[in-house]
Amino acid sequence: HDQIVSGIDWSSTSNKIVTVSHDRNSYVWSLEGGEWVPTLVILRLNRAALCVQWSPKENKFAVGSGAKTVCICYYEQENNWWVSKLIRKRHESSVTSVAWHPNNILLATTSTDGKCRVFSTFIKGVDTKDSKAGSSAESKFGEQILQLDLSYSWAFGVKWSPSGNTLAYVGHSSMIYFVDDVGPSPLAQSVAFRDLPLRDVLFISEKMVIGVGYDSNPMVFAADDTGIWSFTRYIGEKKAASSGSSYSSQFSEAFGKFYGQSKAATANDASESSKSRGGVHDNCINSIVPLSKAGSPKVMRFSTSGLDGKIAIWDLENMQEELGHQF
Amino acid sequence: MANPLRLYLACIKNTLEAAMCLQNFPCQEVERHNKPEVELKTSPELLLNPVLICLNEAEKCLIETSINSLRISLKVKQADELENILTKKFLRFLSMRAEAFQVLRRKPVQGYDISFLITNYHCEEMQKQKLIDFIVQFMEDIEKEITELKISVNTRGKLVATEFLKQFM
After folding, report:
1. Does the keyword Signal apply (chain B) (predicted)?
2. Which of A106, B54, B114, B156 has its CA 20 to 30 A from that of A327?
3. How far apart are CA B129 and CA B127, in angstroms?
């Protein structure tokens, strides 16, 4: 890659890493004999690629780009490379984030034009018409199922809930949007919070979401029994903690443990020279990724990485009582 | 100092805290390029509304934000002609050495005395809080500097005039 690597995703079952970069290229890395070997991806992009995610079945991946398009790539056996199909229409600005629905066909995208869209990415020969997928399997490739116009400002960080029933994304105006029953008649909720905007979100369970962003402190949002979402709390303390692994506050034991670990993968675009200070993150947190054991429905650990060059792993085991029974 | 000045600075500080949420964003118009969008203004959806904060008619501050960069333009108080000249010369001196400051812009925006350009790279290298403190400190110091310069010019003028006119006495 010649320029910064803007997106990276690791597929857990097939053990492949896909990377995309601002230089319009992308590679799929496979582990062969202890070395990571790149495979060519024909992206056909004429602007930078901004984000990437493997589909749940890991036979496709989606790339969002500054060319206002989304590329869906699948593997072509004859030539040993990954070919792409582009979703060209509809986006009026750069695509900042993509997220796959658990059924492997629907894809949600957010863009700097403030809208969140859901497309069908059914590719003949790659996807099979599954009776479980229902109506979405009959849609053509690139057909827009839904467009959500909730945000006045740029949208980032879209994610589906584990069942695929709810969609969450953030807007730059310090709002987070939740959409239930995505389909012909969605139910949307906007939650405005007090502080700086978020960059990325993660569904911990069906009813709990963690957001990270410019506040350098993860925020927890929860839905109560009637389905209304609201901001619950910050995970860490606002004040910088003393050096060491525990926070000096009333919730000290119950809070996440901090230890930094470097991931053994290809370039991390957010890393600068790391400064050693107290407190977890000094600068904006860019992304949040789950660390779950295979097969467990709930996410108990997640990691956050930020512009200060740190990667923190948070453990929610001890927080269950603090977060309440909704967990 | 006076209360309005404190409020003015506090207001600017809060606005900057909200505006300085910048992220790396490659250019949409030209491939493989990364430019500060607030300077180019090619894609209107990437720009936010500019905010103008005025202390009085003579002093104001314009903050324009975009997705990867932020431009702050200041107009400093100039009570009379002498202060006018002093401000211009002093700020020109600073702008010429803009590389040392990193966040300073070489030419002020039309209608203002001095401008700063902060990009996402600055936010990554330096702490946001410190950048904001620097700008606010700068604004406080400018006024003190100009007043000091004015006093010294006046004192020197008096001395020179006294000495010159002594020969006629």
Report:
1. no
2. A106
3. 5
Which residue from B minimizes the CA distance to A92?
A: B45
- What are the pLDDT digits (tens) for A119-157? 888 887 776 665 444 444 556 777 888 888 877 888 888
CATH number at B4-166 = 3.30.1460.20
Contacts of B51 (CB under 8 A, 6+ apart): B15, B19, B62, B63, B64
Which residues in chain B have their CB less than 8 angstroms from residue A196's CB?
17-18, 21
State the pLDDT confidence band at A93, using cuts at 50, 70 and 90: confident
Choose the closest CB to B21 out of A2, A92, A214.
A214
pLDDT tens by residue, B98-138? 888 888 988 888 889 899 999 988 888 888 888 899 988 98
Report chain B residues whose CB lies below 8 A from the CB of A94: 25, 28
Rounded CA gap, B39 and B41, in Å? 6
Place of tokens 């902060």: B118
Q: Name every chain A residue with its beta carbon within 8 A of the beta carbon of B46.
A: 93, 112, 154
Q: Write the CB contacts of B108 (distance below 8 Å, at least 6 apart in sequence).
A: B73, B91, B95, B114, B115
Select the residue of A2, A48, A172 nearest B26 (Cβ to Cβ).
A48
Q: Give me the interface pTM, i.e. the ipTM.
A: 0.74
* Closest-approach residue (CA) in chain B for A172: B21
* Ordered strands of the A301-306 beta sheet: A285-291, A301-306, A311-315
Residue of A322 and A12 predicted with greater confidence: A12
Give the start-to-end residue ranges of the domains of chain B: 4-166
Per the CB < 8 A criterion, the answer to whether A191 and A155 are in contact is: no
Would you say B144 and B17 are in contact if contact means Cβ atoms under 8 Å apart? no
Residue among A210, A240, A174 at smallest CA distance from A303:
A210
Question: B123 contacts in A (CB within 8 Å)?
Answer: 283-284, 307
